[in-house]
Amino acid sequence: MPTKLVVFGSGDIAELAHYYFSNDSEHEVVSFTLDEEYIESDTFCGLPVAPFAEVQSAFPPEDHALFIALSYSRLNEVRKEKFLAGKEKGYALTSYISSRASVLNDGRIGENCFILEDNTIQPFVTIGDNVTLWSGNHIGHHSTIHDHTFIASHVVVSGGVVIGESCFLGVNATLRDHITVGEKCVIGAGALLVGDAEPEGLYRGTKTERSKIPSTRLKKI
Which of 48, 96, 190, 212 is 20 to 30 Å apart from 150, CA to CA? Predict the structure, then answer.
């Protein structure tokens, strides 16, 4: 795997990727890349921005790895498209795995994963390609997370759970053990899932409503 790295993107996630790779990996970010119609500046984070259609000419895949730094837009479809396009161009897609994460699954983590600090990945977990685990999640033993899934912060995935391709799990979602989540499901912030979820399911947590009593009438605060 080349240590010189090109990052696809120019938003917050790309800026974070630059920070994490620069401060907590062996990789050196040397350029960013975007589809030409989205390029607004020829530099980002002090580095050149190359059109994606021509990136392999300026930064050949023989000497450079690629990281797709995109969010869950269109249920992860945009990140998936660019992941596959990068592979078609011949790039090795590298992953970032924080040195501050507890990773105990013997390296069963795919390409282009973004695994941030304070994640706990227990033994016998399998993580596919192009998966994002934001900070502070618990991924229980013998669970499987399939490709192109995005898991936000402080999610609890209990043991033996299977999460299908291209899912999104919001902050503080909780999944009980030994359930299966079908592909392209959205599990909203704070949701509690205790049974299997069919593909393309949408599960929302309970919204906290404002009390009719104003805060100024509370006596003990």
Answer: 48
Report if residue 138 sits inside a domain.
Answer: yes
Q: Is residue 208 part of a domain?
A: no
Two tokens at 18? 């630059």
Host domain of residue 75: 4-88
Q: Give the model confidence (pLDDT) of 172-197 as tens digits.
A: 999 999 999 999 999 999 999 999 99
Between the two ends of the chain, the Cα-to-Cα distance in Å is 57
DSSP 197: B
Please provide residue 109's backbone torsions phi and psi, each rounded to the nearest 5 degrees. Answer: -135, 130
Global confidence as pTM: 0.95
Number of domains in the chain: 2
Show Cβ contacts of residue 87 under 8 Å, excluding neighbours closer than 6 positions. Answer: 93
